Amino acid sequence: MDIKKFVARRKALQISQIKLSAGICTQATLSKFERRGRVPSLAILEQLCARLGLTVDELNEDQASSVTQMRQELDHIERQLMMEDYQVVLQALNRIAVSEIAAVPLRMQYYYLSGLLKSLINGAVSDVCFDFDQILDDLDQTHETVFTPLAYVGLGVMYSRLSELAKAQFYFEKVHQAVKQALVNGDDQDYLRLLTMIFYTAEYEATREDFTTSNGLINDGVSLCSEQHVTYYLPRLKYLATANAIQQCQPDEQIQQLLSETVAFARINHNQVVEVKAAALQRRYLQARKHA
To answer: Where is each HTH cro/C1-type domain found (predicted)?
Structure first.
């Protein structure tokens, strides 16, 4: 980000930091941005730029190619995370220096991926909270972007795995509300991230044995996959549907059909993790039937 261009414009217009920041942020926030490169939230930065007759994109013009490259890299990492390839995701994130990511949306994406990965591999609570705090308390203070409910997903996953279900419930209720709103509004432009919210909320509801809510979310996810012609999440959604059906003692024919669909979609998407999990689930199911 070309902060020098920002400062030069402010000085050329003879606008003090106090005057520029009035009603938008504190002078300290503006000073940290100009002197130390600490980028405020996107909403704040857009307002500051507007007062100077600039746009955020203009500050990023000289870094357009590097921004595009970073976006592509983070998008690839995000897809790998959807495929549950945690080791690859960890290695890829470790190669990125977040301090070198100037664009606010990309910084939020990085912290979201880092925080969710740590939640999923049982990372330290303080590390998980630090990553999501960067989004919730700094980069998206007004909670206007998709990264706020995604941060809630990660926090919900973390607390669920710690068996602190009251805290997990607090966050997943927020996520579920965001999902409902997106589906009602037909806001599916960010459909892969919406699928992430749907899946983890459905998984959480299954741990609470609220299979009605869980299965409803699974159906929403499958419908969204069909509408958008994507299959990334189908193996995981079908696996969860199978596990739910077994817990609910559904007919064997239905369970076997779901197992077949799970394996088929896992193979189509080269998702070996789900394929292995489905095979293990089938073995446990068949053994349980023998001893029933």
So the answer is: 8-59
pTM: 0.79
What are 84's two structure tokens? 């549950």
Tokens 């070309």 correspond to 2
**What is the greatest pairwise CA distance in the chain?**
82
Residues 175-227 pLDDT 10s = 999 999 999 888 767 899 999 999 999 999 999 999 999 999 999 999 999 99
pLDDT digits (tens, 9 = 90+) for 10-63: 898 888 999 999 999 999 999 988 887 788 888 899 899 999 988 888 887 656
Class of domain 63-230: mainly alpha
Domain boundaries, the chain: 3-59, 63-230, 231-292
Neighbours of 82 (CB within 10 A): 21
